[in-house]
């Protein structure tokens, strides 16, 4: 009773066409056996190929480590540079950047310095808060930061 034909019903409308039977036979044919010497040759070539690729993987690994180290150094350098360029509150107070002449350094001084720069009017050398030799937007930002920063004695 294990015969495949014994499981097919006797109804003619349930039988597959010859074309379908051929296509199914082609799709589900038994696997082709590979001769042992061909199998060994393919295996040997595969091992050689992947053994040579180990060197490439090592290079890629070291390149990625180097890129990560370079990125870390770039972040450290950028952070240090940004810290140096931003003026401290002491620099602003020492420079006495009372641009508008009100007697204190406040946000209006930053506004007055920005207006002076926009109008291309002459600027005074003591308004160079950043110490880079030119009075520009960086100095306006430095005055603004110093004006709105809370001093430690005001926090208590």
Individual helix count? 6
| Distance separating the two termini | 97 Å
Q: From N to C, what is the helix and strand string?
A: HHHHHH
Top CATH class of the largest domain: Mainly Alpha
CATH fold-level label of the largest domain: Type 1 dockerin domain
Q: Roughly what fraction of the amino acids lie in strands?
A: under 5%
**How would you state the average pLDDT, rounded?**
75
Whole-number total of structural domains: 2
For this entry, give a set of tags.
156 residues, 2 domains, mainly alpha, 61% helix, Type 1 dockerin domain
If you had to describe this structure to a student in words, what would you say it looks like?
There is one protein chain. This protein is elongated. The chain has six helices and no strands. 61% of the residues lie in helices and 0% in strands. The chain has two domains: 34-85; 89-155, Type 1 dockerin domain. The relative contact order is 0.07. The longest helix is centred in the middle third of the chain and has 50 residues, at 36-85. With 156 residues, the chain is mostly helical.
Give the SSE map:
Blueprint: H1 18-27, H2 36-85, H3 89-95, H4 107-118, H5 137-148, H6 152-155
Condensed summary:
The protein has helices at 18-27, 36-85, 89-95, 107-118, 137-148, 152-155. The chain has 156 residues and is mostly helical.
